[in-house]
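Quick one - inputs below.
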Amino acid sequence: MSDTDNDSEVAADGTGIVAPDDETPTWRERKERTEGLSRLTYEYFERARREDQDLRIESDYVERDVLAFPTWPHEMVRNLALTSFFVGMILFLASALPPHIGAPANSTQTPAVILPDWYLYWSFGLLKLGPLNPELSLLGGTKLVSDRAYGVVANIIVVGFISIVPFLNKGAARRPVEQPFWAALGAGGVVFAATISTLAVKNLVPMDTHLLFDLAFLLPIVTACLSYAVLKSMREGYMFELNRRYYRLRPPK
Amino acid sequence: MADEFAKGFTILISAGLAWMTLAGWYNTPSFEGTQLLAPNPTSGLTVYTQVGLVVKEAMLWFAILGFLTFVVVIPIARKLRDAYAGTPEIPE
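Output:
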């Protein structure tokens, strides 16, 4: 049972579970968060804490000071349920909607459309950055590297940046609102992956090619700026220390 | 609120899967052409096909209306009820 076992009155200010200290916001501080998105964020986490507390109080689960749930039955039941779902889904789809099997490939004929698998479109799109390859007036208007080599270098740069990111940010944030900059960078990166993949198949997209090229680079920036603005304003209503302490795993006694 | 969302989501994916399966049977003339959204077959209808087309339509509307009912209508009704009763958003 929880610590508030003896109290019939439910403490809604978060002090029922987390002991009040200097970091616990006063009721006046909570009331001050009255503006739009930050107020909404604040209310959301307050409600989440409250629901969590009510569930703990209603529950007859004996709370022990353990660091995790036992493998059997807790973890295994969940894993078996998930495994059964996916195996069942595979069996159902394979029997009810069997996949189309096309004609065998003709090795003597070049296909009309040459494309990699869809998950490699982003790399294919990075090969089509010719318009970004600068023509240097020093060299008399010629390009320093060919468009093909430029695309390969673009692949190296993008892959290199992605592999550097884990060293720049260790991933301490539990939710995007805690680190708006990195969340915005991630959102922009996801959109860039989508737009650069669309650029790879630009002849199949019913849109002006130049507009598509511009959007491929503008949309990620717009997305990143919007995400940053939204998350930054949410951050004002997010009680960082309180939520971090509340959701932290309790150490064993 | 989370329970209501789970109910609506379950309805959406279950009925959606049934709709997708039936549409794959009756409204997908070929793999290369229109998938799932092709017009209904008009000739050579067996009883099974006719029943399947009706069930397909019913599943589509069940997915849409069931999801909206549990995710939009019921939460709004509860909000309104709480608002008229004067219950505060966050318990004081």
